[in-house]
């Protein structure tokens, strides 16, 4: 009789234990996924100032929204614990193994030098004082949440195509997330490393955010200035090293030399990136350590400031914080002055008088939550685009009707002797385009 | 007394005459504007097969829709009869003056030759058998009516950037309507002429529609084959010259040499283009004269067929109708075979086994009225994009998880000796990229 009484008890006990187990698993899973970093931006590498200053609540809202929308990466998370039907396990990061961008390479300078010697037709210099440069940018493989966002990505890449064509720079437009752990603003690190190692002929890799546009089509980067530098970012020494200010430099537009030092830097830069607990905790450190930084997960820019401050002796000598021209130019202080610039100055200056780059940090036209009113951002992006586009159009005798207008008007008549007409800016056949192949350096 | 009776009559008469005059002016204006061609596509140069076969009613609907949306060009029409406030009349075409792309040039070969001699650093050949090529494409300066359309334009230009980077081809992405009379598919003519004349260093201009994508990243155009040709289009001699079939050739992807012959061709091609009565009437001629052509306004492709048929003796010798590979490949017969191609063939073939170009004629992802179900088009465009993108990603050890998926997976491990790894297709440092500057030809 006891047995008959105990049997249901044992069944219930089993059920109870099973339920408890399932509850634990579910709770654990919930707890873990709630800590996952936002993968909203996947391959969208906006680094935003104001977004980092705005309330954390907005970001939480974004994350919730994005977890719903970002099915790709949720699926990837799930697949990490399933065997890949296509015949192999998904790459699942070992929880206790520190993150790595790839196998350690210590002799890259020698490997690269050897390769260049054996492949003179792929020289790393395409002219005297003219290194081979690859401009790298990109965006998410998904359509923008904001329908008009993709139109601005399209205008932005056209803008980059124009500048790069004039300056003999090649473009790599990325739309693939190479490493799910390094989603969001960190996605550029695995990509950059991959491109450097695959293309030894590249001397400099120029990373540029998708929300940054060229506004000086005539300005050539002063490559000679950086002959002893390996990393060039817009910024100020004092703001970084003295103030430890989180916006003392900008990683939305920077130059990185293809060399061992850069591989080492990427390795040193990466550890705060892996999404989840690491990125969260690192974010807290950065907020505590850096001046003015709001509370949010670790971003690549803050991490760079932190790295340079902590290890100045190791990296500082090869890092050039440039502020003589706008390698990155914060849009907020530039866009209302375009008419004044047109009135008083001319292309080719690259600085506050005619900025090389206007960078729409915080606008996020692709997403739904930017830090500025959408209309302000979009109207100013139109103006910046037209400001730059005018410098292209004038080569062909046209200009936009106004900085606000998509329409163009003729400003120079057609002629039967087109080659006698000199375009005002001399951009049709500029000196920096007249390249010859020289011996590898 | 008679005078007192007549006075009001005279006033009324004047008023009546004035009213009749105003009525006439308004009716005339209405009549003229109703005949205006669709400027929907402004700088969107889709040449579509099926759209040209579908009911004319759909196109009328489009025009009505677009007249509402296309305020830019309506404003331009109005401004034609107003004095430009900025200080000059808008360009208004003289009603009786035949359309012209620009002042007649008769010595372009000499002008160009002289320029090349004086500017050896801008050679028209960038390598032995490797002419300097400019790929020209573009789209409307307005956001697409279909929100997802801009995303596909973005993927399309990334696709072109990838191919052109591998093959040493420069890109010009146009978003400006240079001549309002030549809106729509005809917009490419003024643009092409302008670019040829501005860039004598260009040997070949490669026009490519925004709805065409590269699907063979390894295929190099056989430039040598065209040494005696000035215009290369995908097509068949029999279908053009014997059948007068309106799809006997395709103007969505073609090569045009920079020379006098080409300027003359553009001049001969243009007359059917000016929107309004000319384009309408020309359309009727083309429908009557060409096999299989539905009723709609003149398009550049039909006009080209007609021109070649009518003036074969003048142009035929320098026109190469290519069908040995898919300089243009109609998507309908290609996209369902990608898996079969992957199974049986490899990149570098360019033909039916592995098409160089997959061209989504009739899909119109930017607009609202395509000729095929939207889902079919978008899904196939994703597949074509991924099919091409896989050839880029494999260089870096990645591939899309499937042709339908945005996500990528690793297919080759990282290594400490990246330069010893040869990418399967040899695209990282292909022979056709190994260019040296040679003397002008």
TrEMBL record, chains A, B:
<dbReference type="Pfam" id="PF05637">
    <property type="entry name" value="Glyco_transf_34"/>
</dbReference>
<keyword id="KW-0808">Transferase</keyword>
<keyword id="KW-1133">Transmembrane helix</keyword>
<feature type="compositionally biased region" description="Basic and acidic residues">
    <location>
        <begin position="53"/>
        <end position="69"/>
    </location>
</feature>
<feature type="compositionally biased region" description="Low complexity">
    <location>
        <begin position="34"/>
        <end position="48"/>
    </location>
</feature>
<keyword id="KW-0325">Glycoprotein</keyword>
<keyword id="KW-0732">Signal</keyword>
<dbReference type="InterPro" id="IPR029044">
    <property type="entry name" value="Nucleotide-diphossugar_trans"/>
</dbReference>
<keyword id="KW-0812">Transmembrane</keyword>
<dbReference type="GO" id="GO:0033843">
    <property type="term" value="F:xyloglucan 6-xylosyltransferase activity"/>
</dbReference>
<keyword id="KW-0735">Signal-anchor</keyword>
<protein>
    <recommendedName>
        <fullName>xyloglucan 6-xylosyltransferase</fullName>
        <ecNumber>2.4.2.39</ecNumber>
    </recommendedName>
</protein>
<feature type="region of interest" description="Disordered">
    <location>
        <begin position="34"/>
        <end position="69"/>
    </location>
</feature>
<dbReference type="GO" id="GO:0000139">
    <property type="term" value="C:Golgi membrane"/>
</dbReference>
<comment type="similarity">
    <text>Belongs to the glycosyltransferase 34 family.</text>
</comment>
<keyword id="KW-0472">Membrane</keyword>
<keyword id="KW-0333">Golgi apparatus</keyword>
<dbReference type="GO" id="GO:0010411">
    <property type="term" value="P:xyloglucan metabolic process"/>
</dbReference>
<feature type="signal peptide">
    <location>
        <begin position="1"/>
        <end position="34"/>
    </location>
</feature>
<feature type="region of interest" description="Disordered">
    <location>
        <begin position="85"/>
        <end position="105"/>
    </location>
</feature>
<keyword id="KW-0328">Glycosyltransferase</keyword>
<dbReference type="InterPro" id="IPR008630">
    <property type="entry name" value="Glyco_trans_34"/>
</dbReference>
């Amino acid at each position: 009789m006891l047995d008959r009484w105990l049997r249901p008890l044992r069944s219930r006990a089993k059920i109870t234990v099973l339920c408890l187990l399932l509850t634990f698993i579910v709770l654990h899973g919930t707890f873990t996924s709630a800590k996952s970093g936002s993968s909203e931006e996947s391959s969208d590498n906006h680094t935003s100032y104001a977004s980092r200053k705005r309330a954390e609540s907005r970001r939480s809202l974004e994350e919730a929204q994005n977890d719903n929308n970002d099915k790709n990466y949720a699926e990837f998370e799930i697949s990490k614990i399933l065997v890949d039907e296509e015949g192999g396990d998904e790459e699942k990061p070992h929880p206790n193994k520190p993150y790595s961008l790839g196998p350690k390479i210590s002799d890259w300078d020698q490997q690269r030098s050897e390769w260049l010697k054996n492949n003179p037709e792929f020289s790393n210099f395409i002219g005297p004082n003219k290194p081979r440069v690859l401009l790298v940018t990109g965006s998410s493989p998904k359509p923008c949440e904001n329908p008009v966002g993709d139109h601005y990505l399209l205008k932005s890449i056209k803008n980059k195509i124009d500048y790069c064509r004039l300056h003999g720079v090649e473009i790599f437009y990325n739309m693939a997330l190479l490493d799910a752990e390094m989603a969001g603003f960190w996605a550029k690190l695995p990509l950059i490393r991959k491109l450097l190692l695959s293309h030894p002929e590249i001397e400099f890799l120029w990373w540029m955010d998708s929300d940054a546009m060229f506004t000086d089509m005539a300005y050539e980067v002063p490559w000679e200035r950086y002959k002893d530098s390996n990393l060039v970012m817009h910024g100020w020494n004092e703001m970084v090293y003295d103030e430890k200010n989180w916006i003392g430099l900008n990683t939305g537009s920077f130059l990185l030399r293809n060399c061992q030092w850069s591989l080492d830097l990427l390795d040193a830069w990466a550890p705060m990136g892996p999404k989840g607990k690491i990125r969260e905790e690192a974010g807290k450190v950065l907020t505590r350590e850096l001046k003015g930084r709001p509370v949010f997960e670790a971003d690549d820019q803050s991490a760079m400031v932190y790295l340079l401050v902590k290890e100045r002796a190791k990296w500082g000598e090869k890092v050039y914080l440039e502020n003589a021209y706008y390698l990155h130019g914060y849009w907020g202080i530039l866009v209302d002055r375009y008419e004044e610039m047109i009135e008083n100055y001319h292309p080719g200056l690259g600085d506050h008088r005619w900025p090389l780059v206007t960078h729409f940090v915080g606008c996020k036209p692709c997403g739904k939550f930017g830090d500025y009113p959408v209309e302000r951002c979009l109207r100013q992006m139109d103006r910046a685009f037209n400001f730059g586009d005018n410098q292209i159009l004038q080569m062909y005798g046209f200009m936009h009707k106004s900085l606000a207008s998509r329409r163009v008007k003729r400003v120079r008549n057609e002629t039967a002797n087109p080659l006698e007409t000199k375009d005002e800016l001399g951009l049709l056949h500029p000196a920096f385009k007249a390249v010859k192949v020289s011996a590898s350096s």
